[in-house]
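name: query_chain
kind: protein
chains: 1
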Amino acid sequence: MVKNMKLLQLPEMEQLAKQAMNNALKEYISPPDEVRVLLTLGRELTAGAGVFELYVPADRPQDAKVIGRTTVNRSSGEVTVEVFLPRR
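structure:
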């Protein structure tokens, strides 16, 4: 018998990702206020995960500066966080 697993949807994963990113960022030097107001959350949904990137946009997408990436497993809800800022 095959069990239907309920996969997490984007809004559920976004909540988990935001909470995990906020907790992780406490250990890092915060960007200046003029940069923080520009921060944008990018979202990508794959078959197995939701990927959320916190970044500073630029005129060209390849010039955007990613400051953090959170991945949420759609099946288990497991969250991993990568931060690309200097530690305190």
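note: Residues 10-25 form the longest helix (16 residues).
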